[in-house]
Amino acid sequence: MQRQTDSKVDAHPPTPAGYAGKVLWVDLDSGRLREEPTAKWSEWIGGRGLAAFLLAFSPTLYADEPARQPIVIAAGPLVGVGLPMGVRTAVAARNQISGGYCYSNVGGDFGTRMKMAGYDAVAVAGASASPVCLLLGDDEPRLVPADDLWGLKIPQVQEALAATHGADPLSFIGIGPAGEREVTISCLMVDRAHAAGWGGSGAIFGAKKLKAIVALGERSVPVFDKAGLRTKTSQLGWRIGASEAMAGLVRGGTHGMAGAGGYSGLVPTGVRNLQDEYLTHEASAPIREEAFRQWEGERDGCVGCSIRCLHRYHMGSERYGTIESEGMHANSVRGLASNWGVDDAQDLLMAHTLCNQYGLDVDGVSAAVAFALECADNGLLEREQPDGVRLEWGNGPSLVKLVRQIGERADLGQLLGHGAWEAARQIGGDSQSLAVTTKHVGINEQGLRSHRAWALGVMTSTRGGGHLGGSPQTENRRISAEQGQRLLDNRHAGDPGSYQGKGELAAWTEGLKCAVDSLGLCYFVYGWYDLSLGNPDELAEMLQLATGIRLSGKELHRFGLRCHTLERYLSYRLGGHTRTDDTLPDRFFDTPVSGGAYGGAQLDRQRVEKALDEYYSYLGWDVETGLPSPEALRGLELAFLLKDE
Ligand code: SF4
What we know:
- Mean pLDDT is 94; it is low at 1-10.
- By secondary structure, the chain is of the alpha+beta class.
- It is globular.
- A hairpin with a 3-residue loop joins strand 11 and strand 12.
- The two termini are 42 Å apart.
- It contains 24 helices and 19 strands.
- Bound molecules: iron/sulfur cluster (SF4).
- Residues 85, 87, 107, 301-302, 305, 307-310, 522, 524-525 line the site of iron/sulfur cluster (SF4).
């Protein structure tokens, strides 16, 4: 089956360099493909900003059924232009868990190959009657049947696509069996080990019967200033190589940096459904990065990345046979081990591998299973469950089975696949107090009781949960008072326990993250772990070298705040989220950390409220409602949203 392509391109301003040039609109109801010039929307820069904007103007945005809802995948102007770590792809869609908005940011090679096929973004609407794949190659894009891929797990999808199209170069974004079964906490996977999580976007692809988008492009992306870009690339290569934080990432990935205490032993970790955030060094030893080195194979990374932060572990396991585990990050270590009381490496590796194979969101799975375990402790779920699953902290084999059940939508997995919040709603009784969520999205976190700006970033996240937004690393990295003053005008930025200026810091960090995601750069490198690499002036210079677009660092950061404000507005319009949703469950306010460097730490309600006031004020949002005020919308050239009300 090959569908008709309508390649009519309207008259438009010239496409700047750095862009592939086109946005592809896909209507799966009719099979019609339509192209438009990216230049129409270049004020949205690309990646996350462009994805949010295209979603906001999709005619089916408010549809209730995921099959009818739009989903947008976009890569920024610094993807595929030769700059180090210019590789990230953004996904925007309605959040299947919260009902609000969700953006995801994912690595791998997909964005680069999509741009090399000629597209900066793909927006998909409608649903196909039978499974399909969208092929983006050097020729016309086309939809092809994918019945033979339906039911396959992610590694087998990649093998089958490689066999059909040639292994290199090929990259895809698609779903495993969990997405096909519309499991709410499923995600999109790029290649084998990169997940676009947080909002159940796998279920959207599943409802649309879209197995994958395959990017096969080989054309190079034009750049504005080739020589300047080459010089900048070389300078950045040197600085990244010399950065102490980047050396830490090279050494042990995020598993080493932040998993089970991190190198310093000071990084907290979620314990038993986040009832606590402290593990003794002895208790964390079996799941620390050092313990896994015996199984480490060649490291993996996004295209052209010298850091290669993704672990490949090869383990001969007594329990599961050979485990080939790819892409483990700190969130798996915390979410699938300490948050479940598991300390056996083979159970952790197997649970992580199953999440990748089925296309499940590790954070959502962590929160749902931990919730079930606490329910069993409180008599709200039977401890003994079908298929020999025993709901018991640390019972690795049972919990691995449970992950499989979620992916298969079988037994208790049917309930937990909805995520912790919806599972609690169905169980009833007191169970909702055990669902560790914000805006209904499961939290798999660390440092919420002890790190103030970090916690504020999680509670104000538009997608619900997750620290990769407004949570800065300044507290974990303990930047000095002088550095804080010089870089952020805040002497307390590196002090985890201080509330001073932390509302502003979280809001400022959101602006930086939105800008970095819109450019298509990896945030691990550009600003998060090492602030010196996230200088907005330098990011703006990189944008200019690639595209010729001139912005100051201040203007680029302001664009990030504009993007965040649009996302907040979408979160409100779709999910009704307001200030009252910017919070965390009671346990973070009422139950202190049990020991270690942050023993006794917990959140203080009054101080959090004050910091939230500061957060909204910095953004020009209404302090009462936590929503962008009409003045803020006008000030950020978002007045067009007011017509929508
Ligand atoms: S640091 Fe990690 S996530 Fe970032 S580009 Fe490199 S491999 Fe990808």
